[in-house]
Amino acid sequence: MNDSIAFFSGFGPKDLWFLTQAAWQTLLISVLSISGGTILGIFFGWILSESKVVGAITVGFILDAFRSVPLIIQLVLFYNLFNVIGLAVSPFWAGVTILGVYTSALVANVARGGIEAVGAPMRRAGRSLGMSYLQTMRYVVWPIGLRAVFPSWVGVALGVLKDSALVSVLGHPELLKVARDLITRTQQPLLVLAVAGAFYFALSFPISRYAAHLERKWQS
Amino acid sequence: MIEIKELHKYFGALHVLKGIDLNVKKGEVLSIIGASGSGKSTLLYCINGLEPIQQGEVKVDGVSVHAKDTDLNKLRTKMGMVFQQWNSFPHLSALENVALAPRIVKGKSKAESREIARAQLEHVGLSDKIDVYPSALSGGQQQRLAIARALAMEPEYMLFDEATSALDPELVGEVLDTMRLLAEEGMTMICVTHEMGFARDVSDRVAYFHQGVMEEIGPPEQIFGKPESAHTAKFLANVR
């Protein structure tokens, strides 16, 4: 009997530390996939806005596929595919890569909307000052357009942060995976899930506060 | 000197400019008047290389604007352009709006470009708005900001595309005053305008455009006093 008591022990301070480490993993996965996916997504959005036809049938089609297939299927499918073709990719990097591409598919459409919202007159104003096409993009079109869609981007980022829980299916010890392991051991699902949920909130809340702060600053 | 020879411009099947011949000398102020759709604004866009042309040639200081090997970005720094919609950069303060192009196009240092910007903002009477963002400026102030932004590149020519047409009536005066100031300073200017008073008082020559053709050009006394073309006379009778 003593053995089983040790095996099913209750939620303790040490478990809180496990969850903290897991939250760090979640943060790492999210930051890497969101920043990588955002840069890639802006690039894709730019292609979509600049070449309507070619962009739509190449980039647009691929992105549609990533947006339409459930993330959990993408994760399992690509993780196994990586291993089948002999790429030894850890669950962590597989998760980051797939989540990043998934993010880029969402960001691409947000970014395209912002870039297209900056009309020809504003671009001409830049060009008439002697700026090159790329300078006009870098200093005029992107800052104006991407700021306009910043609130949508924050929504995407927070969504991806939460979706990173799905990386647990690959076995990487991020928040949800560790929480599920702890539930198995402690048999205290409500407590463990509440703590894990609090960690997700603690990760998301500063982002949305900081975003609101930036929006206020830009509006002045 | 700006030289335009046998310039033809089409938008698809639409023949917008039908063989324009025009020279503008250094120091000259030319006003272009005419009904909407007569091709006046398109001509400015062609001079600045913002629109391709189908036939003819535009030369600025001897450099062909539409030639393939022309460095258009460099050539454009010689020509400041002010648009009907002022298009201030909304994410930058007044000072940054003006300082941007000298820094990134001409490669001037941050301090130097800010100094240029400060001087040009003072030039157009916006010294007290240096740190203000465009959203807090009136239309007239934004248009003067656009003029300062163009002047910061130290252009030799200024092209005004209906600079006052989008403004509330009470704001037109301050922008015209700024344009007058530039004319007095000897700037070479081509002004597409509906302000007949400005065209008459400030211009050395006035050109009347009618359906893609330069119907008549001459000193303001001729155009407004005894126009040679019946079209010019009819247009002026209608706008008065």
UniProtKB/TrEMBL annotation, chain A:
Keywords from the named record: Amino-acid transport, Cell membrane, Membrane, Transmembrane, Transmembrane helix, Transport
Annotated ABC transmembrane type-1 domain residues: 23-211
CDD domains: TM_PBP2 (cd06261)
SUPFAM superfamilies noted in UniProt: MetI-like
InterPro entries: AA_ABC_transptr_permease_3TM, ArtM/GltK/GlnP/TcyL/YhdX-like, MetI-like, MetI-like_sf
Coiled coil: none
Membrane topology of this protein: Multi-pass membrane protein
Assigned GO CC terms: ATP-binding cassette (ABC) transporter complex
Descriptive protein name: Amino acid ABC transporter membrane protein 2 (PAAT family)
Organism of origin: Maritalea mobilis
Source taxonomy: Bacteria, Pseudomonadati, Pseudomonadota, Alphaproteobacteria, Hyphomicrobiales
Automatic annotation (TrEMBL), chain B:
Source organism: Maritalea mobilis
Matches recorded under CDD domains: ABC_HisP_GlnQ
The organism's place on the tree of life at top rank: Bacteria
GO cellular component, one term: plasma membrane
Similarity comment text for this entry: Belongs to the ABC transporter superfamily.
Subcellular location: Cell membrane
Name this protein carries in UniProt: Amino acid ABC transporter ATP-binding protein (PAAT family)
Mode of membrane association: Peripheral membrane protein
PANTHER family documented for this protein: AMINO ACID IMPORT ATP-BINDING PROTEIN, GLUTAMATE_ASPARTATE IMPORT ATP-BINDING PROTEIN GLTL
SUPFAM superfamilies membership: P-loop containing nucleoside triphosphate hydrolases
